[in-house]
Amino acid sequence: MASQFSPNKAPTDPEQDAPLKEIILYAVGNIEASLANQFYSLMQILMVVALSMNPILLGLIIAIKTAWDGITDPIMAQITDHSRTRWGRRRPYILVGGVGRVLLLIAVFAFFPQDGQIKSNKEYAVEKAAQEAAHSSVEANVPQESQGTDQASSQHTDEKPKPLPSIKKQKPKLLDQIKNGLHALVSSENSYHQKVTLYLLVACILITTFTTINSVPYYALGIELCPSYDGRTRVVTYRAFVDKLMGLLGPWILPFCLLPVFTNVIDGMLWYAILIAVIGIPSTVLMVTYTRERLAKTMDKKNRGPGLFKSIWLTASNIHFLKILFLYQFIGATNGIFIQIGTFLTIYWVFKGDALAGGVLSGYAGTLGMALALMSLPLINWACRKLQKHRALRYGIIWMTIGTALKWFLVSPDHPYTQLLLPFFFSIGISSVYTILPTMMADVTDIDELNTGFRREGMFGAVMAFLGKIISTIQPLLAGVVLVAAGFDASLGADQAPETIFRMRLMFSIIPASLLLLALLALWRYPLTRERMAEVKAMLQERRIRNTEAES
User: Fold this and answer.
1) Domain of 223?
2) CB-CB contact of 337 with 479 (8 Å)
3) pLDDT tens, 302-344?
4) I need a labelling partner for 23 at 20 to 30 A (CA). Which of 230, 261, 345, 464 fits?
């Protein structure tokens, strides 16, 4: 076994699936990415809760970052698909991107601009203790107050209380709130928020660049490891297992960052980044050292493949690719636009503004969801083999839709912990969707090779990201718009209007559940069945044999 990053050695039979040990090491190599990518999902919540920044302003940061990501992905794909180094087409970039990303993440929080506007974690702890004491006091005094009320009622049965005059606060219109959010970027009224916005924008662009360098070749390498129909499901299942294992930590990052041992949430995020480095760098080095690339040496050496723009066009015009792209982006956007509403409902409605209590409950629900998703992977793998991938995916979408609709009933301040029932539906459903879709995309690359004679795994992953991120560039903005459209005002804290809560609940459950059912249309008469892919494999193998004989 090699002791350092060793040159790539092609296996004897490139059509043979990788051994289990190599598949596991490949999956372990994604630990750093699974942990580091939590930065994006947490940034909005941390900044809104800690700094009361406008959600649309933060959505703008994510939108610009996503647009940059979409531009760099195809460029990186062309580089990795056409690279010829002694270490292979994929592994050097995976190493540089992964290690560079986590080191940059540490620097971002180590030098984060701070001033007195960031609430300290001790203040959160004091507020939580005060709220718990007040709640206990109210519960203890309820019987006595009830008796006093009954006596007063019997003595003054004829008197009617005079209604207090209602004073309604005029809320800004939706368009005005959007303008206010964008105005904050250039306004000097809050120079600190402006400084944080620009800092996070630059940080996101840099982190995204390293993410592209790492993720595009990593995705392509996964397709190469196991060329068979069921082997690709096995690779994605193991990768998903490691991702979800790391995802168990995700819901607890916010409570971790709010611990009183840290000065504030930024200090907590710095230590989280250090933990990523301790775990993620060794796992990335192990992966690039002990995995091997397979299919590059079986290609026709005279066929250098299409150029960048032609390659993008060929990929984007593939009808099978477009169906999978639709499923990825439609399901992702449906969940992404509305999902953050759940966090604010839990904090400001279920727990009356207690961010720590809301974060802890979200942590329980998220951990349970990840555990269930983890345990469901063998079932998903079995379903793909027994039912074929497209049929298993249909059942997963239906199951996820049921869980989304149940949010209307199970997210409630009267029974906060009924939320823990949701992962049994939604989490298992979403796990099946994002486990099966990558294996279906891997099948599409074989159809593409049959048509073009060139292996372009990197470009397929990158064009998926490019087209998807053009669509999802506005998703963070839409998430902020949806939150504002519901009437949410961060400055009101727990004093949100009842009609605001009603609209937030509707947008968190009924609306996305209805939209998810539309995804089933893309699976109508899906053509890439097991039988069809067996035919394609046979034709490809015959062509590769001819290429090898012609070169020898």
Assistant:
1) 20-124+174-292+307-551
2) yes
3) 556 677 788 878 888 888 888 888 888 888 888 888 887 888 8
4) 464
Flag whether pLDDT at 94 surpasses 90.
yes
Cβ-contact 210, 97 below 8 angstroms: yes
| Distance, CA of 141 to CA of 467 (rounded, Å) | 60
Q: Residue 251 maps to which CATH number?
A: 1.20.1250.20
- Calculate the alpha carbon distances from 134 to 138, 140, 329, 350, 526 in Å: 6, 10, 45, 16, 59
Residue 115 in any domain: the answer is: yes
> How many CB atoms neighbour CB 110 within 10 A?
12
The pLDDT score that the predictor gives to residue 334 is 86
Q: What DSSP character marks residue 453?
A: S
Does residue 432 contact residue 402 with C-beta atoms inside 8 Å?
Answer: no
pTM, entire model: 0.67
Q: Please tell me the total count of domains within the chain.
A: 1
Closest Cα partner for 267 from 123, 53, 120, 128?
120
Residue 7 lies in a domain: no
In a domain, 138, yes or no: no
At 225 the three-state DSSP class reads helix
Inside any domain, residue 167: no
Residue pLDDT, tens place only, 361-390: 877 887 888 788 888 889 998 998 888 888
Whether the pLDDT of residue 12 is over 50: the answer is no
